Amino acid sequence: MTTNDAVLRALAHPTRLRMLSLMWAAPQSAAALARELGISHALASHHLRLLGAAGLAELDGTRTRRGGVERRYRTVHGTPLSDQGERDGTALLSETLAHNLRERAARHAPGSPGVTADAELWLTPADWDGFRRRMAELLADLHDAAQPPHAPYTVRVGGTVMLFPLAEDDDTADHDGGGDGSGAGGGGR
Fold first, then answer.
1. Taking phi first (over 0 means left), then psi (-120 to 50 degrees means alpha), and beta for anything else, what does residue 144 get?
2. Residue 71: how many CB atoms within 10 A of its CB?
3. CA of 50: how far to CAs of 46, 55, 143, 175, in Å?
4. Which residue in 57, 136, 175, 186 is a FRET match for 16, CA 20 to 30 A apart?
């Protein structure tokens, strides 16, 4: 198995994606992750080992706790999800992201503001590159602003984003009957 395969396999599980988010702002122990995610300590440790083997999480330090040694892990910062675009794992990763989106959407706080979008658009290559770069910057800013889980005066926020160029259809005519067949793009907000 290549390093890229190990990364993809590690990213292809909803619990491991959630663990990476929880460890982004502050190191977490397997026990703390288990409590937060509602899973067993053994399962949290297993997921941490897989994340560590893939180079996505690393030991941040140890501390004495209740007469034992607690290992605390942190997410290795970077953009491993964005790096998956050239691999055959896009479908697997999208299934994992869809799972987390469904789970998070079910926990959307009633009456709270959010942003929802869905789009299939045609852009110039220059526009696409600019939007992609700005989105990457916004997501980096979001992660940089992250606080440890349950920190005072924080709001728990969920987000799932996947933007990518689409392969051209063999037939560029409008297949849903809703357009003029010119190939002019449409999309939603």
1. alpha
2. 16
3. 6, 9, 22, 43
4. 136
> Is the pLDDT score of 60 beyond 50?
yes
CB atoms inside a 10 Å sphere around CB 54: 20
- Is the pLDDT score of 26 beyond 60? yes
Q: Which long-range contacts (CB under 8 A, 24 or more apart) does 15-19 make?
A: 15/39, 15/43, 15/47, 16/47, 16/50, 16/51, 16/56, 17/96, 17/97, 17/100, 18/100, 19/44, 19/47, 19/48, 19/51, 19/57
Q: How far apart are CA 44 and CA 19, in angstroms?
A: 9
Sign of the alpha-carbon torsion through 31, 34, 40, 46? negative
Task: Show me where the domains of the chain are located.
Answer: 3-106+116-144
Q: What is the Cα–Cα distance from 23 to 149, expressed in whole angstroms?
A: 9
Is 3-106+116-144 a CATH 3.40.50.720 domain? no
pLDDT-based confidence at 96, cuts 50/70/90? Answer: confident
